[in-house]
Amino acid sequence: MSAVILDGKALGLRIEAHLAQRVATLKNSGVEPHLAVVLAGDDPASQVYVRNKQRACERCGIKSTRIDLPNDVSQEQLMRVVANLNSDESVHGILVQSPTPNGTDELAITETIDPSKDVDGFHPTNLGRLVMGQTDGLLPCTPAGIIQIIEDANIDLIGKKAVVIGRSRIVGMPLALLLAQKGIDATVTIAHSKTEDIEGICRTADLVVAAIGRAETIQTDWIKPGATVIDVGINRVVDDSRDSGSRLAGDVDPAVSEVAGHMTPVPGGVGPMTISMLMSNTVRAAEILLN
Ligand code: NAP
Questions:
Q1: Ligand 1 within 6 A of 173 CB?
Q2: Are 93 and 198 found together in one domain?
Q3: Is the Cβ–Cβ distance between 230 and 193 less than 8 Å?
Q4: Residue 2 is assigned to a structural domain of this protein
Q5: What are the residues facing 67 on neighbouring strands?
Q6: Which of 98, 120, 122, 192 gets mutated to test ligand 1 (max ligand atoms within 8 A of its CB)?
Q7: Which end of the chain is more exposed for a tag (fewer CB within 10 A), N or C?
Q8: Binding site membership of 224 for ligand 1 (Cβ less than 6 Å)
């Protein structure tokens, strides 16, 4: 058996096409959705991520402004930039690219973002709304993208067993909350680095989501035949057979596709959906302000 590949890139482009229509409606009402991206430092991966986000803005018709800050930016300077964006009425979404430079406190910066402009969905107010079962606001992008992938593939999780491997603030924990929400109704287990018999737990699951950041950890014998496997991991691994000397790998061994029923690829699965959900949150933030 070979898994149905869940194409996040194609789904993301479809979602962005719908968003472009909503952007046009907003513009007709005199509102131009506007995302401000703050990039502090010269981390090469962050440069690529920010460029991809700006390209997505172009596809959707969203205005984007990039604010570059030096590697030695202070916490106070970063906070001041965020405060200015909070009070700028033309800005609907604020994103401070992670990781912020050494010596700055990323969590504290997140908390200074106006929750109504927090398009990453990481502010305690937005995470708190999620805990309360309110999913109509600004949701964290990667978990929201995963839910969209599952819904688009018509995978029914009502009463089914889901295992989320990884309990981070940005992926694992909010995703577990979303999967357990009324309407999705999965029975969720959160696994992490201290979990005993993680393979055995995964083998009972109808859905396994891997968000651990360790290349190709999840193996075929961890997966129940026909289960859905979502691979969040983005890992750069050495590959001497390539000119670049490296390749991107997920957290799941690609051979898992021989036993899974559905599976996301890396690249082209969860990654593009994360960006599409950022676009979606920016449009939503502009719409909420208008209404
Ligand atoms: P993180 O903050 O480092 O969290 C990793 C989680 O995995 C932790 O909860 C950790 O457990 C757990 N873990 C680590 N090794 C484990 C193991 N061997 N067995 C079981 N659990 C283990 O990472 P993150 O930010 O959630 O990101 C996870 C991965 O997703 C990374 O590769 C990242 O690049 C990728 N990512 C992709 C996207 C996307 O758009 N595709 C978005 C965000 C992140 P403890 O809590 O016990 O330490």
A1: no
A2: no
A3: no
A4: no
A5: 38
A6: 192
A7: C
A8: no
**In which domain, by residue range, is 216 found?**
141-271
Is 169's C-beta closer than 6 angstroms to any atom of ligand 1? no
What pTM was estimated for this model as a whole? 0.98
Write down the residue that tokens 């989320």 correspond to.
164
- Looking at the fold, whether 155 and 230 belong to one and the same domain comes out as yes
Instruction: In whole angstroms, give the CA distance from residue 187 to residue 171.
Output: 17
Please state, in angstroms and as integers, the Cα–Cα distance from residue 230 to each residue in 31, 153, 200, 234, 270, following that order: 36, 12, 18, 12, 8
Q: Is 274 in the pocket of ligand 1 (CB under 6 A)?
A: yes
Question: Which numbered atom of ligand 1 lies nearest the CA of 171?
Answer: 26
Residues 151 and 111 in one domain: no
CA gap 65, 91 in Å, rounded? 9
Give tens-digit pLDDT for 96-115: 999 999 999 999 999 999 99
> What confidence tens digit (pLDDT) does each residue in 165-191 have?
999 999 999 999 999 999 999 999 999
